[in-house]
Amino acid sequence: MILLVAVFIADREFFQTYNYEELKIEKELYAQSIEKNESINIGIIWPFHEDGEPMDNFKEGAEFAIETINSKGGILGREVKGIFQDDKIDIKTSVKIAKKFASNKKIFAVVAHAFSNQALHSSITYNYSGVVMISPGATDPLFIRDEFKYIFRTIPNDIKMGKAMTKLAKIKNFQKVVVVHEQSKYARVIANTFIENALELGIEVVYKENFHPNEELFTNIITNISPITNYSIDYDAVVAIGSESAIPNLIKNSREKGIYAKFLTTDMLDIKNIEKSGDFMEDTIIATIFNPEILNIKTQNFIEKFKNRYDFDPDTWALQGYDALMLLAKAIEVGNSLNPIHIADNLRYIRNFDSIFGTYSMLSNGDIDGKEIYFKIIKNGKFKYLTLN
Amino acid sequence: MSKLLIIFITILTLNANSSNSVKIYTKLDEAPYSYIDKNKKLKGIYSAVLESIFDKMPHFKLEQEKIDFNVKSKKEKKKLKKRLEKRDFLALNGIYYKPEKYPYIEKYSDPIFYENIILICNKKTLEKKRAVFPDDFRDLNISKSKNISIDENITIKDREVTKELIFDLADNKEQCYIGNDMILWQKLHKLKNSDKNISDKLKSIKNALTISRESVHIGFSNQENIYKKHLIKKINLAIKVMTNSSEIEEIIEQYTTDVFTNQTAKNIEAITYNWGGSYVSDKFDTLGLIPEIVSLALKDVNIDVNYDLKSSQHSYLLTKWEKRAFSFPYYKTKEIEKYMTFSNPIMFSEVVLLFNKNRFPNGIRFKDFNDLKNYKIGGVKGYFYEDIFKKYNLNYTLTRNFEELIELFVFDKVDIIPSNLKVFIDIVRKKYPDKLEHFNFHSKKNFSSEPVYIIFPKSLKSSEDLREAFNTGFENIKNKNILKKIFLKYGLSGSEYKTNIEKLSNFLKKRKKPQNNIDKFIAKVKKSKKVEKKVVKKSVKTTNKPVYRGKSAKLYIETDPIDSKIQILNYKGRFKQGIKIRKGTYRVVISKEGYITLNKKLIITQNETIRLKFTLKKDK
Prior knowledge:
The complex is a heterodimer of chains A (389) and B (620). Chain A has 2 domains: 2-156 and 297-369, Rossmann fold (3-Layer(aba) Sandwich); 159-288, 3-Layer(aba) Sandwich (Rossmann fold). Chain A is 41% helix and 21% strand. Chain A has helices at 2-10, 12-15, 20-33, 58-71, 91-102, 116-129, 158-171, 185-201, 219-225, 246-256, 297-310, 316-335, 340-348; strands at 40-46, 49-50, 53-54, 80-86, 107-112, 132-135, 151-153, 176-182, 204-211, 237-241, 262-265, 284-288, 353-355, 358-362, 368-369, 374-379, 382-385. In chain A, helix 7 runs parallel beside helix 8 (185-201). The radius of gyration of chain B is 34 Å and the shape is flat. In chain B, helix 14 links the parallel strand 17 (376-380) and strand 18. In chain B, the strands form 6 sheets. In chain B, strands 1, 4, 5, 6, 7, 8, 9, 10 and 11 form a 9-stranded mixed beta sheet that branches. In chain B, strands 12, 13, 14, 15, 16, 19, 20 and 21 form an 8-stranded mixed beta sheet that branches. With 620 residues, chain B is an alpha/beta fold. Chain B is built from 20 helices and 28 strands. Helices cover 34% and strands 27% of the residues of chain B. The chains are: A alpha/beta (389), B alpha/beta (620). Chains A and B meet through loops of A and helix 8, helix 12 and helix 13 of B.
């Protein structure tokens, strides 16, 4: 009982009830009366650090977008300000931040979350409190719901990822594959989509297995697919879907057991310096939404300017951060309004947006269409981008 | 306004049509720049760079055609002129910036890379300081590649890069030669590999100086095209990206080191597996018959190989996964054919029909395949005999691999199986040693004689060159009779030897058979192994069984302990290492105080060098 009271006191913000309708009206009223000299505040929520190390270049990408926008006079003549918050890949933290931002009438929009779990939970608060939410990382198909008016994403969903991976397998002439996936919704959706499409394309799945997210040795899977222990096994590649901590471990253990097949995995592994993790990662194919070799003038200019500003090449997530903010700015400018409902309506109907990723469109349900999925393979500790035509 | 409209239409066109065809001519030159390969395909740095540029432009589809400016006849020249005047191409790839030479080229791309025209001279010529061309070189006898034009006022004759040219340069009959650096070094490298003398002569030739540097471009014709401007912009961007990412450098490297140079410097990593004991041995001191053939064939074309030994499936998978350059030995199967290319046959495997002699004490009947309907026959899925099983409507069972088949056979789930005898014996001896004596094979007629191959992964670019190299080397060692010697060295039995020599020499003679029964065969294999190794490894107890059979010989005996006394009882004179001993029967006695004396029979029937090793056991 004492414990419950303690939890209640400590976490009262979590249990605090909100009148979402009031918050929504408050924001709309503020948006209509905002002064010229007041800044536009955008919440930017991301797991910026992991174990004390920067997770990726998302922060730099978002910062760079804000600098670029402000250098051109801001949005609707107002300066843009980013309010950066770390979600620590934690649902509770994410919801806390969502509630904090929701109750701040000066925050109309957020660019938020690298992972679906955090994005899904906080999206409820944002939607009902009238905050436009753009997620550059949430891939769960359920993140976009017809009844939600304020929720958007700028990344292809898991079903598209599964289909793209099957297409790649077909192009690479993988005729027999092993499919292993983590016991998570994310991995299961992609694995199942892959298998369904593989059947249609005549790719044989010779072995399928799942593993616990905390699995370290993968003994069961490796015993079944290693030619040292299974004399009959024959396959061209291993499709491995899971987190950036599990998959490299699986690959490393597999290599030690004589499995030198190509590993095909999702953009979950599209993280900083993954190509330099060690020799075992050689011949791993990683999905990505960014191909620096695709000749989009905007992309090339962005890469050059970013490099001049930060002295290193931007990663995928730097582009995602930059792109989401530019999309938001576009929606505000098109509607000439800071009212969240107007921003959301305009976002919904942005077609052929000329972005640093090329041209893409937003769908009326808040999903994205036209952002390509590419693949890169690790060769000699460097990425080589694969041609898909 | 009209400009805006054009841009708008362009964008619409690009979005509506996902693959706009762009016709580009690539100039035919010499390797490594632009040449026609064995498969009559356009290859080289020019076309590889162009293809890579278009890989980055998914909205455009490249239609690449070769164009040869080095035509000689008037008719061909006229045809070429007509083709160029037609202006049905958007761009010309692989040209220098020469507006006077290409009047129909309106705009040039940014430089893709640079080609150097260099001067090589013999060391003696360079003893005198010569830094300016042509002034410092007027007193010399110089030749050049015919494709190079020198604007300077100096007389230079055209000459091909040949062995004679190298000799003339080295012997100071000619002092210098002018050529394109990459073409020149590639040609010199090939000559160097073909002749050791050239290698020595080349040591006296040095790179003197770079005469000129030409930038290579894609030139755009004055053909009217709505998206030309956009395309030029994109191509320039691609060149920039490729230069920054060293992709162009990588393409050049790929074409300037051919399979021979590359792989001589870095040994080829191949993989094999224990097959039939002596065909591919699992003991690394004696690789076995097939690895020795493979090594010698590749050595003949200056390629060194490192071997790794795994199971047959693991070897196949590592090759399929491109982790090894090739693997062997394999029969041709439809499954393997999907992924691999095959060498010419490296040997023919005699496939016999095996049966359990306890179940079929009178043997089996096999005059033709119809006779096999009376038995339950087993085989591996996808092997050459699957079609035979189906054709003759046999009662068959197929397994996923050979180990599984042996298991079925050993446990009487099938009556007969076709297999190479040595391979069968080797596996059964290792896995089910007490069962070996239960089996026999049909000695009157073999099931078939099947070629075995080296397999190379189709997905590896280098496979085709390596396969060609192996086939050439294999042909060479066959013609030099080295192959025969290896077959004899490994004690290939009479009929097997003959079959291989005949079949590999493409003679269609009918094979002579009779085969021995399984026990005789094992004895024969054992004997031939002794001949092969010329070493008796185990200590030998006193016995009348001869340790060696030969006609006459040079005899070396190694003992453990090293200071043991060696006596040959019916031989006049004392034993010393390398004594010549005539054909006949002898008795060898090895003794040392504190050890059990060995007494062994030795039969010499032919002239050979015999090396024996005896280990004495301590006397308890």
